[in-house]
Amino acid sequence: YEAPVWTWNEDGSAASAVFTPKDGSAPVKVEAKITSETTAPTTDSEGKTVYTATVTGPDGNTYTSVKEVVIPKLPYLTALNIGDINNDGKVTAADARLALRAAVGLEDLTKIDDKAVLRGNVDFKDGVTAADARLILRAAVGLEDREEWMKNAPPVA
User: What pLDDT, on a 0 to 100 scale, did the predictor assign at position 120?
Assistant: First the structure.
C-alpha cells in the first residue's frame, strides 16, 4: 500500500485514511479513532487542541495523523476575573478592600500586577474608585452579577 491519505473534518472530531494498493486495486478507506489534548487559552497566550487520528491499515500496521487547532487568546477582562483585583481566582471582600484603599491613595494596584487596575475598574469609569469597591463587595456577597458588568466593558483590542 501507498502511504495513507488523510481527510479530517473541520473541527477535528473525525478523520479517515485512504490506503491505495500498489497493485492498482480499489483503495481502502479506514475511519480513525480520535483522541485529543487541549491546552486552554489564557489572556497572554493562545491555546490549542491537538487531535490525533489512529488507524490500523489493511496491512496490519498502525498509522497516525495529527491536526492542531489554535484557540484564540482570551480577552483580558472576562466575567471570571473582573473584580478579582488580587488575582486569586475569586472575588472577595479582600478585593473590595484593595479597591477602596486604591481609591483613597493608600494602595498602588500596579504593585500586584500590570492588570490589577483593569480588574478593579468594574464600572469602567474614572479608574478604581469607591464605587468600584462597593460593587466588588456586593459581588463578593452575591448581590452583584459580574456578567452584567461585562455588558459595559469597552471593546477588547
Answer: 95
Helices (H), 24-151: 93-103, 116-120, 130-140, 146-150
> Phi and psi for 3 in degrees, rounded to 5?
-60, 145
How do residues 20-44 score in pLDDT, each as one tens digit?
999 989 999 999 999 999 988 876 7
> Measured between alpha carbons, how far is 94 from 68 in angstroms, rounded to an integer?
41
Q: Which residues contact 37 (CB under 8 A, 6 or more apart)?
A: 49, 50
Task: Give the pLDDT mean for 36-62.
Answer: 90
Contact 48, 86 (CB under 8 A): no
- Helix spans in the chain (H): 93-103, 116-120, 130-140, 146-150
Q: In the structure grid, which three cell numbers stand for residue 128, read together?
A: 478604581
Task: Decide: 21 and 10 in contact? Cβ < 8 Å.
Answer: no
Look at strands 28-31 and 33-39 and give their pairing. Answer: unpaired
**What is the average pLDDT value for the chain, to the nearest integer?**
91
Rg of the chain's alpha carbons, rounded to an integer? Answer: 25
Which distant-in-sequence residues (6+ apart) come within 8 Å of 129 by Cβ?
99, 103, 123
